[in-house]
């Protein structure tokens, strides 16, 4: 006979007193402990949810993020930023500074 071990994780949650009272009544009506009843509700709800992970991280579906080279560059820049290997940003505060910067490109 094969046995299956389910991985579980504990998490404390805070619920309003009135909600706990209503859940306690429902749990008792089904002959379950409050803990078992809440766990069952959460498992059933979680199993009914369909989660779709998209490759494109843009909420608007911008095609820029579908290009493998663009994503590789973004990843490299994020990695460099986290490692502190990026150049300081240039802050332009006036129209003259902006014009001068563009003229010197």
Structure commentary:
The protein has 105 residues and is mostly helical. The chain has a domain at 15-46. The chain has 4 helices and no strands. It has helices spanning 17-29, 34-48, 68-82, 95-103. The radius of gyration is 27 Å and the shape is elongated. The model has no long low-confidence stretch (mean pLDDT 86).
Briefly, what is this?
This protein has 105 residues and is mainly alpha-helical.
What characteristics describe this protein?
mainly alpha; 105 residues; single chain
User: Which sequence of SSEs, written as H and E, runs from N to C?
Assistant: HHHH
Low-confidence stretches: none
What is the number of strand segments? 0
Q: What do the pLDDT scores average to? A: 86
**Derived structural class:** mainly alpha
Helicity range: 40-55%
Strand content: under 5%
Question: What's the shape?
Answer: elongated
Integer-rounded radius of gyration: 27 Å
**Cα end-to-end separation:** 74 Å
- Sketch the major β-sheet: none
């Amino acid at each position: 006979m094969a046995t299956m071990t389910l991985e579980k994780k504990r998490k404390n949650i805070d619920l309003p007193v009135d909600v706990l009272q209503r859940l306690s009544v429902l749990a008792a009506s089904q002959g379950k402990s409050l803990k078992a009843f809440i766990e069952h509700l959460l498992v059933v709800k979680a199993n009914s949810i369909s989660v779709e992970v998209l490759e494109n991280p843009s909420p608007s579906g911008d095609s820029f993020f579908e290009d493998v080279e663009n994503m590789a560059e973004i990843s490299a820049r994020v990695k460099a930023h986290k490692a502190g290997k990026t150049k300081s940003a240039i802050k332009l505060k006036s129209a003259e500074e902006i014009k001068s910067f563009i003229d010197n490109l």
